[in-house]
Amino acid sequence: MRVEKLRLGDEVLTVSDGPLPIRWIGKRIYGHAFARMNSNCIPVMIKTGAVDDGVPSRDLCVSPLHNVFIDGALIPVGQLVNGTSIVTCAGMDPIAYYHIELPVHSVVLAEDMPAESYIDRGDRAMFLSGTARPAGDLDPATSWTCCAPIVVSGPVVERVRARLAWRAGITPPDIMDRPQSGPLLGKLEWVDHTVVSGWAWLADHPTVPVVLEVVDDGEVIAVALANHFRAALRRAGIGDGHHAFHVELPQRLDPQRTHRLVIRRAADGLPLSGCPLVLPAHRPSSALAGLDLVALVAHADPAEKRWVLDWVEQQAVKLQALLTSQPELREPPPARLQVLTAATERKPRRLKLPKAVTLG
After folding, report:
1. What mean pLDDT do residues 3-24 have?
2. CA dist 14 to 77, 101, 109, 205, Å?
3. How many CB atoms lie within 10 A of CB 217?
4. What percent of the chain has pLDDT over 90?
């Protein structure tokens, strides 16, 4: 059954707890223009068969923070993005998320992919709940126990990433047994906070793809295989042209700190031409300068527009509190901030939702 057609009381088959009834359903819908302000809102697609034969049985889209159950652990799917079998859905618009909560935190099968049910980690208020039990029936998150350990990094995650990469053909199991020595030609051509791309070639071993490491301030954050085809490379006499790489980073780089990136040969740490490349930190004001909230929510429904307005007002109150709490910032705020602050001092509006909302 499609997730948007589920109703309260419907029983869902879990991996270890048998059939359990749904006691809460959360719904969140917004446009890509609004979601791109937060990379954790952009869906991740697990392609058919990415994890195992028939797992998932069809392409499955979830949020990057949603945990999937692999090797006895819950792993945020955003940590498993490899750009081939598990990819970011940058162009999806609109984006709709549905969450189901059961009497206990459990693992359900979504397109035959084991994934966690909803557990309240303090974010229940962000959903426009289509159906829900009375609030008193919903236990606080502190009383819940996760059905499996949540692992976001370390050997378990790296082992899973390596297996998925081999399955996707990104890194053949015997790749490190092939020669990786000799002069290294190539260049780091593009880096941003989510993608790294360029090309690499071993003239002494022209048909062997180069295994590369993406290093941020001395820490390896991704492994890439330079085996993508690019016609321009073949025309330039660079082997058969299958020597480009394009890596979607497992986790978006923090834009508020400086990053010193190096792409190097995994076998011996030899860096590519163009390295290191420094991504400077962006001040929050520079990210907000070109932000047009009105345009972002122009096509949203009224409830979504009201939610955004309430959020802006809450942020203004918090910013004003920060300004007044720090002596060095106690100068009179600029006129624009004074107007916005004054607007937030009126009695908060109560968001009125319809008595019944039909999911679909």
Report:
1. 92
2. 19, 12, 7, 50
3. 12
4. 31
* Residue in the structure block whose two tokens are 């606080």: 140
C-alpha to C-alpha distance for 43 and 357, rounded to whole angstroms: 24
Dist CA 349 CA 33 (whole Å): 26
Question: Residue 129 — pLDDT band, cuts 50, 70, 90?
Answer: low
pTM, to two decimals = 0.55
**What would the two tokens of residue 34 be?**
């609004």
* pLDDT value for 314: 80
Give the number of other CB atoms < 10 A from CB of residue 191.
22
Contact 156, 73 (CB under 8 A): yes
pLDDT in tens, 234-287: 999 999 888 998 887 877 888 888 999 999 998 889 999 888 989 988 776 665
327 vs 5, 152, 174, 319, CA distance in Å? 54, 39, 61, 14
**Of residues 89, 92, 117, 91, the one with CA closest to residue 19:** 117
Q: What order of strands is seen across the sheet that includes strand 228-229?
A: 184-191, 195-202, 242-248, 228-229
CB burial of residue 183 (10 Å; 0-12, 13-18, 19+): exposed
Assign 3-class secondary structure to the chain. CCHHHCCCCCEEEECCCCEEECCEEEEEEECHHHHCCCHHHCCEEECCCCCECCECCCCEEECCCCEEEECCEEEEHHHHCCCCCEEECCCCCCEEEEEEECCCCCEEEECCEEEECCCCCCCHHHCCCCEECCHHHCCCHHHCCCCCCECCCCHHHHHHHHHHHHHHCCCCCCHHHCCCCCCEEEEEEEECCCEEEEEEEECCCCCCCEEEEEEECCEEEEEEEECEECHHHHHCCCCCCEEEEEEECCCCCCCCCCEEEEEEECCCCCECECCCEEECCCCHHHHHHCCCHHHHCCCCCHHHHHHHHHHHHHHHHHHHHHHHHCHHHCCCCCHHHHHHHHHHCCCCCCCCCCCCCCCC
- CA pair distance 159, 163, nearest whole angstrom: 6
Contact 333, 341 (CB under 8 A): yes
